[in-house]
Amino acid sequence: MTENNSTEKRKIWQVIAASSVGTLIEWYDFYIFGSLATILATKFFPEDNPTAGFLSTLALFAVGFVVRPFGAIVFGRLGDIAGRKFTFLLTLLLMGGSTFLIGLVPSYQTIGIWAPILVCILRLAQGLALGGEYGGAATYVAEHSPDNQRGYYTSWIQTTASLGLFVSLGVILGTRYSMTADQFGEWGWRIPFLLSIVLVTVSYFIRIRLKESPLFAKLKAEGKTSVNPIKESFGKKENLRLVLLALFGATAGQGVVWYTGQFYALSFMQKSLNIEFVQSSIIIVIALLFGTPFFILFGRLSDKIGRKPIMMTGLIAACILYYPLYRGMHAISVSQAAAFAEDGKLLLSTAGIWLMSALIFVQVVLVTMVYGPIAAFLVELFPTKIRYTSMSLPYHIGNGIFGGLTPFIAASVVAATGNIYAGLIYPIAVAAISFIIGSFYLRETYRNKMND
Asked: Which residues span the membrane (predicted)?
């Protein structure tokens, strides 16, 4: 390896590390709300109707996802005009500040209706920030990557979402085990939110040292940046067609597979199977620990055989496997029940924990198939001067609307029908639609150059 190649490799890994640390922390900030949904339901809503409180908490969780496309437009435009680095520094600070403040909001018993109102406002701020963060990080890494290794390098960014959930659960479990259950339920749940300010500060000082991406810097120096990225992205028929195909042929399906395989799986264990909070969290952590390396595997593989075949295989596999997987989860909860916790929740045997983890691990692998290659796919689909805006919107509608609403819609369907498997209808239907549209209309991108 020549000295020049060695320097370039060091540079790209520094870019990946700085981008990934910040993105991981933003996902951590975003996910602790979902991970603590069952507890937050009792803190920010009246306690006389637990089901309504839980669904309301999931709705607040979903609010942060619904607003993400607006963040994609606002910060995508800023990223295509002012630059990638400045924009994802701004989103990092907005996300961290909002998360910290959620940890300070008084309970419903203290301030009444103002509690859910304040949390809703902060969730909106979180969603706006995340809408700008991912597109910036993915674009930044992609614009530093060689054409033949873009799937591999951007797949490291893809791991941050799972690692963010992993870290959030780790911090929550660490906090929970450091105190009694009553203490955690009373005030300990606030600690993971408050810790985010430390993590964000560290990440900010790492990111501030980064330089602008070379492709954008070159474009800016030549005076070729877009004057109106929103108009160019969505006002031109050809580019709008690409945005819609990316949404309905890839990111919508990817979004529901992602949130079914992790968040709905956690919700299903806790609410439908009545498995104890700590055990269900540990099961997710085990599945993520073994499943996360597959993001890198499929990202690297997509550089060799293409993004599309891997993503489409993941989508159709999810459609076929979800019902058997969730029936298997229910069967394990019945056959491997070992005892009951003090709060009446089910405790699984050691064998049951590993069997349940194995079924969720399969779901995580499906996530990695559709999510691992998608950053490279999206950045390759659009030209540099409108890339941040163009890729961010379909990604965040797919993940924020279609994906983010999955736990709420699925739980609502289960509550309405009384059938614990009925919630799977939604993710299976969306994944099937994306598979059909993607298979017939999406073009392969992995041979595309990005020197425009």
From this structure: 12-33, 53-74, 86-105, 111-131, 152-175, 187-206, 242-265, 277-298, 310-326, 346-379, 400-418, 424-442
